[in-house]
Design a protein that fits this description.
The structure is a single chain. This protein is mainly β and 549 residues long. It folds into two domains: 416 residues, 7 Propeller (Methylamine Dehydrogenase, Chain H), CATH 2.130.10; 61 residues. 13% of the residues lie in helices and 32% in strands.
Length: 549
Amino acid sequence: MNNGGNGRRCAIFGQLMVAVLLAVLMCTAGVAAAEVATIPAYGWRGNGTGVYAGSKLPLEWDGLSGKNIRWRVKMPANACAMPVFGPDRVLVLADPDRILCYSTKDGTLLWERTLSAIDAVVAEADKEAWRAKFHEAWTLLTQSASTKGPDVWTKKPKDIKDEASRTRCQTLYNELGQYGISIPTWQMTGYTVCTPAANDKYVVVPHWSNVVACYDWDGNRQWIQQPTPDKKYRVQNEQGNSPLALVDDLLIATWIPKTSRGGGTSAGELSQEAFVAYAVATGKERWRSEPLRSGGCMSGAPIPFKVGDETLIVNFAGCVVRVSDGKVVLRDVGWSSGNSPTVLGDVLCFWEAPHWYGPRKGGYAYAVRIAKRDDEYTATKLWEWTAPPGDTVNHRSPVAYDGKFYVPYGLVFDLETGKVLIGPPKVEGARKPPPSVLTMQGHYGYPSPFVASGRLYLPAADGATRVYDADISETKPPKLLAANYLGSKGKKTATSVSVGCVSPPAVLGDCIYQRTTNELLCIGETTVLCPPVKVEAVAAAGGGDAVKP
């Protein structure tokens, strides 16, 4: 891909780039030499739990003033996938097919690649031409289609008002269909919806067009393939979650039936998915599980955990598989179709927000203890809490920490007994979020809560993050420690700066890496302000290339 040469931009915008370099020095001058963080197997919510032990994150930051923003880079487009990490680098995605790898030290762009089904099935000589068609079709669809009414998430070519653009967009997607590139189910989540999985050697990137590729951290592709030779399964599609988990030298992938509705099934129906294990270095299949019961939105990530010395992995439909050989050891121990389960020790936690659809209406939370005796596994339900049907934050995953289960619905449970420590909020026949101090902002939300530094961080889709003391009990109500904003706070006006966040924040070492619709920000303690003004100026001058402020 031609990203536009730095020399050409400097020739045209020399004075602007000098100002940018000065800003870079100012933004990085106040940052102490960062301790090199150990890179674990990293993916959806770190190790899948959303708990970042040992991290010392900032309590406060501000996007407009640049307080505690170490660096920020302009993103070429939106993505739901959360950032993942390699040695001294962070990788993000951008619609419709871009992979961008930056230095964690200062946000320098290290390399960029593209990934879609075009890379897997089109002849090398024809790839650039087909990529250009793909980009044109996506641009027409996202910039021209109407976003009003009930189809705000499901733009189609027919919604484009200009006849010539409408016809061109439909023609392009008809042509792209021969390579498996169709219009994504939700344009809000796009093609780069699934979070990659990474360790210190490799990063594995999924793409909604039904392809997965593995790269080393220098950007060299190791292998690329579609989920199965018979094409009966595909990459799942939902909000920022991941179909992938890395366990030791294995890549565990969740493939769903290709006939499923864009990553899910119609209301009330169930489908069969499968866990498939690959050697991460080569992409060769090691084992394939029996079909697993699944259904709903199909948006949960596979979560690895240990019972004794055995590593297991669970999907959001409560099917538990042994990682060593792919044997299904338990089925139907829980259900969380709109998000991912979480784990604390040998206890699996499931949460389903109140909703009006699916095989089980209403909301519920429960905890299940997994035990092993000889070669047999058991699941003992510790408790269950239920709520009436409603329509609220459905795609945020819960977090378990320090004997408590925090649910993004304004609820905190005792993990062992299910006793409600905070809540429950009232749902008054409503299709709207319940009132609660711990309920995150926004009707439908995507960024999930996480715990670090003994604090509970509640990010929201509007760029706000509220931080609470995680030590909550019946006698110790939630204590708000800070309210942080990336955009304007308070009531929106004509001059307000709006920030959208559908990607969950990622944590490494002492920094939060937040992917917004327009930027990637490194949030960490620093004495120098790093405001967004210069980012906007350089982006306007140099195009969509990522640059430091």
